[in-house]
Amino acid sequence: QVQLVESGGGLVQLGDSLRLSCTASGLALSRYVMGWFRQAPGKEREFVARVSRSGDAAYYADFLKGRFTISRDNAKNTVYLQMSSLTPEDTATYSCAASEGHFKATTIGDYDYWGQGTQVAVSS
Q1: What angle do CA 83, 88, 105 make, to 5 degrees?
Q2: Burial class (CB within 10 angstroms; exposed 0-12, middle 13-18, buried 19+) of 86
Q3: Band (99; pLDDT cuts 50, 70, 90)
Q4: How far is CA 74 from CA 7, 12, 78, 86, in A?
Q5: How much is the average pLDDT of 20-25?
Q6: Among candidate residues 83, 68, 72, the one with its CA nearest the CA of residue 32
Q7: What single DSSP character describes residue 100?
């Protein structure tokens, strides 16, 4: 049974940093492109970032403006999202996802497995 479990969310203040983790079980992480999405209250889920199977290439949503970094450790079956300069607009539930067949996966439909998400709240 495939499971993706996110952790690291919480309540932080404007300008703070936070690192999210996504640990996978039931699959060989190295076979999957991994992505992070987020969903703010009352809004649709949106793409945040993805990382290639080997971790040597990453792609980010334009709105991030270089504030977030996605990385992975296949030996630990874990993907990370380092977030910095957080603002209240980053408040959302952040979910990781795994895509086996789409090396340029940026849409929800490109991903095969999803975690339940971890909540991030940024206060001003």
Answers
A1: 50
A2: buried
A3: very high
A4: 17, 28, 6, 27
A5: 97
A6: 72
A7: S
Name the residue type at position 54: S
Q: Under DSSP, is residue 63 helix (H, G, I), strand (E, B) or coil? A: helix
Other C-beta atoms lying within 10 Å of the C-beta of residue 111: 25
Q: Are 72 and 52 in contact (CB under 8 A)?
A: no
pLDDT in tens, 23-62: 999 999 999 999 999 999 999 999 999 999 999 999 999 9
Burial zone of 83 (CB within 10 Å; 0-12 exposed, 13-18 middle, 19+ buried) = buried
The CA angle 37-104-35, to the nearest 5 degrees, is: 25
94 residue type, one letter: Y
